Amino acid sequence: MAYQIKQLAVLAGVSVRTLRYYDQIGLLPPAYVGDNGYRYYETAQVDQLQQICLYRELQVPLAEIRQLLNQSPAEVTVALQAQYQKLIDQRHQLDWQLQLLQTTIKTHAGGITMTDTEKFAAFKQAKLASNEHDYGDELRQKYDQPTLDAATAKFGQLSARDYAAMQATEQQLLTALTQVLASGTLVSDTAQQVYKLHRQWLSYTWPDYTAAKHRGLATMYLADDRFTAYYDDRVGDGATAALVAIIEHYAQD
Which of 1, 40, 71, 132 has its CA 20 to 30 A from that of 112? Predict the structure, then answer.
């Protein structure tokens, strides 16, 4: 049986717009297009859409779904195991956020008093949860899970003094980067200071440093608008590009 796009949308519980988008990105092309210009879908496309909907329920990104549809059962199993671990990590973060929210509610109600240590621990967990929400997918594409887990653990172990030092280092970095941007010179004593400050800032959360990892991180800064905006918004347009160029020049093994 052949379904027109509206019929398939009703059958699968998705929108016509979604099906058109899936066709546009090559995820679910129709079986054929009729002389009337309508898309028609047959059993094979229905089965594929069922798989796509399942993966979407599991929060698998569309780019990964396209790969999964063309992989062997063994490769799919490995990918789904990774997605399973990702959801477990998200559940842990959500459990902590719920616990933090409950504790905060009780604190405001006068039921309990949080110590400064507890407040700082809660703050760090909130930062980790925010980072996971904003950049989790991108970081997992760049680094393996053990590396990310080690960085998370190191950040979680920061003392209030260490965190304050980390923030102060970043402020020095932004000041130096502002000077570099104003000078227009990316190879100078100040530019080298920018590199050293950025490396020092990373040391607070990176378990181990290599120049290659540093350069790899720099590529992410320009590959994603959100990363680019972080420095451009704080220093000025072109700040991120300048920082990346500095890292690529000075971060050498």
Answer: 132
